[in-house]
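Wed. Picked up where I left off yesterday with RCC1 repeat-containing protein. The coffee machine is broken again, so keeping this brief.
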Amino acid sequence: MKTLQVLLSTVLLVKLAGCADFDQEVADRCERDPHSCGLPDPTAPVITQSSQSAQEVPSQGTVTLSVEAQDDETPQLDFSWTASIGTVEVHASTGSTSEVVWTAPLCVPSNIPATVTVRVDNRGTSASKTFDLSSEACRILAVSAGDNHSLALRSDGTVWAWGDNSSGQLGNGTKDPQPVVLPVQVSGLTDVVAVAAGASHSLAKSRDGTVWAWGANDDGQLGDGTSLEQIRPVQVAVLTDVTAVVASANYSLALRGDGTVWAWGDNDLGQIGDGTDKDRAVPKRVEKLVGIFISTVVVGDDHSLALSREGDVWAWGYNDFGEIGTAEDVQAIPERMSGVTGVKALASGNGHSLALREDGTVLAWGDNSEGQLGYDPEATVNTPVKVPGLEGITALAAGAEFSLALTGDGTVWAWGINTVGELGIGTDAPRGLPRKVPGLVDIKVLAAGDAHALVLQGDGTVWAWGANDSGQLGDGDAVDTQVPVKTLSP
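Structure written out below (tokens, as returned):
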């Protein structure tokens, strides 16, 4: 019996020794190949090589990025790529290499660095590398000023807005009781080529010739067939092949590629130009102008002007100050202005009008109670008069009771009311004669709202001045300013 016990003990010890050897063998194998034992690899892979075919990438251009990595324990590695902006497409991949193609966006916003990051994973730990890229920066291409809000068109086709949003005119899906002092993106618009700001509504023209509208709609000024306010863009009915849009207090105009003019919204004072005083919730063609190729349309508070390809000016709507150049109180059908020829650009304020002639001089007519016509005395006139002291003018803009002119050398001139700094000259004193706005150079675009102004510099910088009680200057506060300040770029 004792011999049997010794024999069993010996066998047990041998088995235990064998198990220990087996366990050690398994442990060694798991250390060499953790995945065979269902264990994570504790050692990170090593990225041994990386390359990119270019550092600078043009708008919507491409660059090839590649990496090579190794891991002794895990020869089959996983590669994942992410981009901060733009798109990444996998071109080729093996267990130890990966190559992708990055396509740049239309432009890169200033607050988003263009980077592509690759993560190499051995199903336990990982390594990563970030490629820094450079592509065309986003720039502001156009600006528009409404009564108390502003719009900017960015080079990626998006629209940005700031200022009063009590009627949803900023188009970001909300209504705000407080001033919106920084730019917000208008919802859902990505391929826009032109914008227009009205009193409390906004318009955008897409590249495909359609028109989108948002904000106040009590008079049908959005053109969607209703009178319902919209806090996001809705498509304007009927219109196709549109080349330009403008927005007034409570009505809108569009110019089509065939030179016809379409109007909708408030028509109490003949603003639609259809011979009636009936509001229109859907765009209606201005029949009197059919057959006359119109190249430009502008709107005042309640009057409209159209410029023909031949340089003639047509006017209609309210005429309480002679702003349409006749003695009639209301003109519900467009009529050609007598004696006004050789015009290449127009602008309209609340009750005054401006015309830029081919020779670079400026004509003005209508209300001059605040000196907005640019000459003394402060008399209302319904016959265009030449604004003194202006030569070599290339563009015009008109606010409620002030006027702006741009010269060929990129400087800006202003005149008219100046209660809240509308003229940008550092005082609140009105000017009945044009005065140069100090500090501005290389200006390319002008825009004037009710009592504020926006200008676009050649480098894409937006400058603003005047009323800011609704945040319409976009400089981060709601304080009026008498001198130009930089709008915070979207």
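Quick read: The radius of gyration is 33 Å.
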